[in-house]
Design brief:
The chain contains six helices and 14 strands. By secondary structure, it is an alpha+beta fold. It has two domains: about 80 residues, Ubiquitin-like (UB roll), CATH 3.10.20.10; about 160 residues, Cytidine Deaminase, domain 2 (3-Layer(aba) Sandwich), CATH 3.40.140.10. Strand 7 and strand 8 form a beta hairpin. The two termini are about 35 Å apart.
């Protein structure tokens, strides 16, 4: 399990706290955000907005999830310039790499940017693991508990974690929910933690760029306290990713993964008939047998 600090925050700021008809002066720290140039092979590629903690992991994970690197050996050097001119500088082994500039603005907090071609065909994430609702509930409880004190004291951040099905291996926080997945991926690369057959848990909404990052990480199960978007659900079904929303206690919504060949093992009786056509099941079986 990661150790403190988990959240980067300011010194306590003064605020007026309303309680019904009464108001009192109070102080509270606030989660930090920084605008950081990301400089690749001496080229200023873009500016990222993120919480300034685990920045090396963030840079590694972002480059991995955007397809610029596949492993730690692809990085020659990574340096974080300190204030007053903060920046992330990365030298890749491939000095002639052409950086993509076909940007897609995402729905993430802070107007995140991804270069993943969301319309491109992607190989399904095939897995042999099976997870249960009880597992997901227990792991989500672990994730929430890990940051409960900081969330009560600071708030304003998202949290994601990767599990092996029993415990959380990595936890990351950020003001941007998509940044938390990059930090998770980067720490896994740096610590040689396998992401395939892992369970990715997050507190934020799972939109399409979040699911695309999970697919790049080869994670077969994604669970959130929040909701997925419609396109994320469609992509989860196409990529054979088990997608679970509103995972709160014993209740959750399973949007994909109940069919054969995917990772969800239902422990409950399903009363209604399978709403999917036969071709969907055939495609799923093909994924399982591949």
């Amino acid at each position: 399990m990661p150790t403190s600090p988990i959240v980067a925050h300011s010194e306590p700021v003064t605020l007026l706290e309303y309680q019904g008809n009464d108001a009192i002066w109070a102080t509270k720290p606030i989660v930090l955000e920084s605008l950081l140039p990301l400089i690749i092979n001496d080229e200023r590629w873009l500016t990222v907005l993120c919480t300034p903690i685990k920045l090396r992991y963030f840079a590694l994970g972002f480059l991995h999830n955007e397809g610029l690197i596949s492993c730690l050996d692809d990085v020659l050097n990574l340096r974080i310039d300190q204030p007053p001119e903060m920046a992330i500088r990365v030298q890749l082994c491939n000095q002639s790499l052409q950086l993509p500039h076909n940007r897609t603005l995402t729905s993430g907090c802070g107007g995140g940017t991804t270069f993943v071609d969301l319309a491109a065909a992607r190989e399904p994430v095939c897995t042999s693991i099976r997870v249960t609702a009880e597992q997901i509930s227990d792991l989500m409880d672990q994730l929430v508990a890990a940051v409960a004190d900081d969330y009560s004291r600071v708030g304003g951040f998202h949290t994601s974690g990767l599990s092996d099905g029993h415990r959380l291996l990595v936890i990351a926080t950020d003001s941007g929910r998509h940044n938390t997945l990059d930090k998770v991926a980067g720490e896994c690369l740096a610590r040689n933690i396998s992401m395939s057959d892992g369970i990715l848990l997050t507190t934020g909404r799972v939109s399409v760029e979040m699911l695309a990052k999970a697919a790049r990480m080869q994670v077969p199960v994604v669970a959130t306290l929040n909701s997925p978007t419609h396109l994320a659900v469609e992509l989860a079904r196409a990529w054979r990713i088990t997608l679970i929303g509103y995972a709160r206690g014993s209740q959750m919504h399973v949007y994909s993964g109940w069919q054969n060949g995917c990772a969800m093992s239902l422990g409950a009786r399903v009363e209604d008939a399978n709403p999917f056509p036969a071709s969907f099941e055939e495609d799923t079986l093909a994924c399982r047998d591949a």
